[in-house]
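Pipeline run #58 for the internal structure catalog. This entry was flagged by the ingest filter as a single-chain record with no existing model, so it goes straight to prediction. Upstream metadata was stripped on purpose; only the residue string is passed forward. Reviewer on rotation: M.T. Logging verbosity set to normal.
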Amino acid sequence: MAISHLSSGEPISLMPYGKTVSGERSVALFKSEELEVIRLVLAAGKTFPSHSVPGEITLQCLEGSIEVTTDGDVQTLSANQLMFLAGGVDHGLLALTDASALLTIVLHR
């Protein structure tokens, strides 16, 4: 089954899931030739292994808290905080609590 992405001009809510966050799944909201936006959901204790992507990214924590490791440096990203990472930067995630975030990736083809 193909994932349904947002159409141009279509709004979507980014309100926190609240108590139901642990039962939600990550979902790609849209993808174009140059940009991908994902609602990332991580249950407490879940990790996203260290990796890098060619394009710049932003990670905006919508709820909960996420530990972000970049090149050996560890930062905690909490609700209502945004982090920018340059393209090619190794980064990994650890959900300190149930969390959701808006992940934006600039795609280099």
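catalog note: DSSP finds no helices and nine strands in the chain.
catalog note: The radius of gyration is 14 Å.
status: ready for reviewer M.T.
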